[in-house]
Inverse folding.
């Protein structure tokens, strides 16, 4: 019969291991509930609008208590779409324009798809795109500061 190695005296407790795995993004709640919580994400965006600021994807996810990953960012984008659809039905300006890339402070590709409906059909980067996004963001800031 093979002999088992002796147990390590300094083995981490189950709780410590679980905490480490969660902190490193390997286990635990992956944030799906927070990311899909439309009222919570909407409230976060309205607060940002009233402050007159945009949020990076990473910052938005962090405020929801999760670390940035591309799958989580894509899940957040689905929630942003739902928020904007409901907002449009209530004659509110779209809030998704407030969530931007850190690199150029512009929304990601998914936001631009179908952007003709937002009154723009140019390139998704550059000075014209920046001006368009800033104009929409200012509309959102003005709308929510007045409420």
């Amino acid at each position: 019969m093979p002999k088992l190695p002796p147990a390590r005296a300094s083995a981490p407790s189950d709780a410590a291991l679980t905490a480490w795995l969660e902190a490193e993004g390997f286990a635990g709640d992956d944030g799906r509930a927070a990311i899909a919580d439309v009222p919570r994400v909407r409230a976060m965006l309205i607060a940002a609008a009233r402050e007159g600021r945009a949020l990076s994807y990473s910052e938005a996810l962090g405020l929801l208590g999760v670390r940035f990953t591309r799958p989580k960012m894509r899940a957040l984008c689905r929630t942003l779409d739902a928020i904007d659809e409901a907002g449009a039905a209530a004659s509110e300006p779209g809030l998704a324009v407030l969530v931007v890339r850190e690199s150029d402070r512009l929304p990601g590709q998914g936001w631009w798809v179908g952007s003709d409906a937002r009154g723009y059909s140019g390139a998704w980067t550059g000075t014209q795109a920046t001006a368009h996004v800033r104009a929409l963001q200012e509309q959102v800031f003005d709308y929510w500061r007045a409420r």
